[in-house]
Structure formats: structure tokens, C-alpha cells
Amino acid sequence: MLELKSFFFKDDKLFILDQRKLPHEEVYFEATNIEDVAYAIKAMLVRGAPAIGCVAAYGFAIGIKDGLDVEKVYNILSNTRPTAVNLFWALNRMKEAYFEKKDLFEEAQKIEQEDIEANIRISKFGASLITEKSVILTHCNTGALATAGVGTALGVIKELHRQGKVDYVLVDETRPYLQGSRLTAFELLKANIPYKIIVDSSAPFLISRGIVKAVFVGADRIASNGDTANKIGTFMLSLACKAYNVPFYVVAPTSTIDFNAKSFQDIPIEERSKDEVLKCKDVFVGPIDSEAINYSFDITPAQNISAIITEKGIAHYPYVDSLKNFKEQI
């Protein structure tokens, strides 16, 4: 199965799939300097915590190659998106590589390759949790478009399908940016995996009816106690799953774990433009002069999560010791 590529580096240029144009157009944005890379991250041409980290690593290398000061490079890229910790993990690693006089483009390629390999291991760990053919629900997009490889939560679903364990996938549309209906459905269609798109608010009802056998979601930052920041709408899924005893799994590489964050209180939550709520593409769906609240992420408390699946293994509540063991393996 031919996988999508959310980005690729060739001839000293970084090519980024403009996900704003999906699913109707597959257009690559050519990033030739650090400002291009910063724009691509901030404007969400590229999104998904692992992919953001990889693209930022290449952006760091491009900025240094162009003669910019290392602190300026770090600051330009670190100010693009506040919640996805993979961004800061990648930039800190690139900064360390800079002071160790390593080849920065080789280091960025290593980060990319490590994510590809992590995705494969994550997928196999996650698939082991489902024993029979099931209806799986997922939120946002966590596949090839959000990573360098097959994906995290969606990578698990792809592996489950390969093993014959997927009846069909319920895809939350994921308002307001529609990462589910635009991107996850696009990936599932290309992979020939049966799916049905649903409005976000119908998910708890479908869970209550016993239709959903498991929920797999990604993460943008996981605190050391297991509290998880993910796309807005994730928290309500966890509440419904807990109420009706449906497994709720968080899937992410260990680079998404912020060991400096003790709990949800240490996780910054990004608030984006009200236009994303009031408009669909360029068309207003609400009165033009309306105000709106547009938090991109919410927090799922650790006790609502059935397991956290990483490339190092599967952690269960309480998460502090398990995640600490993963850190020692890194």
C-alpha cells in the first residue's frame, strides 16, 4: 500500500503537503527558508505533533544553513504552535546537535526515520489490544498526514485492518478544522478501509448504543502523570467511554511525553482565530460580527485513559511509573 507523505526533503528544499487543500487537491508547498517553514507550521499546512517536529527539525537545519543565529532560528520556529511538545523536543535536539557540531540535515533525517520506525512499533502494540473484528472510532487525524510514517492512532487502525479486525471506522469530522472528514477519511479511502464520517457530537450517543468497541486517539502532549492534551473534542469521548465501559486508548511516540509537565496544569492550550469557527473555508456560517471561542485542544485526565500506547510499549493507569520507565529507555 502506497503511503502518503506529509513532507519530504529533496535538493536542499523541504516540500510540505498543503493539508488545507485536502481532500480535493494534493499540492506541495516549497519551503526554501525558515520563514516558509514557520508559516507552514503556524498556518497548519502541516499538522500533527510528530510531523510538526520533523518539519521543524528540517527548518532548523535550513535556518542555520542560511547563516541565521541559532537562538533566532530556535525562537522563530518555537513560536509557531504552543501545545505540540514534539516541536520543542525536535528543536532542543537540533540545538544540541548544533553545539555538538553534527551535520544538521543528517540529524533531521534521523528524526524523520526514527518516527517512521516508531509508528510501525506503535501500530503493532496497539493492534494487540483488539482481539475480534470491531467498529473503531477515531478523532482528528493521526495517520501518514500527521507523522513521517503510517501514523499513530490511525497507524494502529491500519494494522488492525491488515489483521482483519476492522468492521468499519467511525470518523469524527473534528470541528472546526475538519481534520477527520477531510484528512482521516482521505487516508482511509486511499487505504481501502471502510469508514463512516460522523458529526463530533454524535460520537457519545453511538458509544452509548454499544456500536463502538474501542476508541483510538492521538496526543499533542502527555504530562508525566498521563494527563493528555489532544484535539478539542477528545475529552468528551473519554467521558462517554468511561460511562459505558468502552476502551479509550491514547497513541503517541515517547517524544510526545513532556516529563517536565507534572499534570494538565503545566500544558499550554492553544487558542486560534475565531474565523475557524465562524467560517467554513471562506464562507461565514455564523453572523459576521459574532465572537467565538476556539481552543484547539482539550485535556483528558489520566484516569479516563484505558492505556497509553507508545513505541516502547503499553502503559496502564496509574501512569507515572510506566512513563518514567519509558523515559529511562529513551
Topology summary:
Elements: E1 7-10, E2 13-17, E3 28-31, H1 34-42, H2 49-65, H3 70-78, H4 85-99, H5 104-127, E4 134-138, H6 153-162, E5 166-172, H7 179-190, E6 195-198, H8 203-208, E7 214-217, E8 221-223, E9 228-231, H9 234-243, E10 248-251, E11 257-258, H10 275-278, E12 279-280, E13 283-284, E14 297-300, E15 307-310, E16 313-315, H11 320-329
Parallel strand pairs: 4-5, 4-7, 5-6, 7-10, 8-11, 10-15
Antiparallel strand pairs: 1-2, 2-3, 8-9, 9-14, 12-13, 15-16
Helix pairs in contact: 1-2, 2-3, 2-4, 2-5, 3-4, 4-5, 5-6
CATH topology of the largest domain: Rossmann fold
Coarse structural class: alpha/beta
Strand order, sheet with most strands: 6-5-4-7-10-15-16
Radius of gyration: 19 Å
Report the strand count.
16
Overall 3D geometry? globular
- Main sheet characteristics: 7 strands, mixed
CATH class of the largest domain: Alpha Beta
Uncertain regions spanning at least 5 consecutive residues: none
Q: Output the CATH homologous superfamily of the largest domain.
A: Translation initiation factor eif-2b, domain 2
Content of β-strand: 15-25%
What's the helix-strand series? EEEHHHHHEHEHEHEEEHEEHEEEEEH
Q: What is the rounded distance between the termini?
A: 30 Å
Proportion of helical residues: 25-40%
Number of separate helices: 11
What's the pLDDT, averaged over the residues? 95
CATH architecture field of the largest domain: 3-Layer(aba) Sandwich
What's the structural domain tally? 2
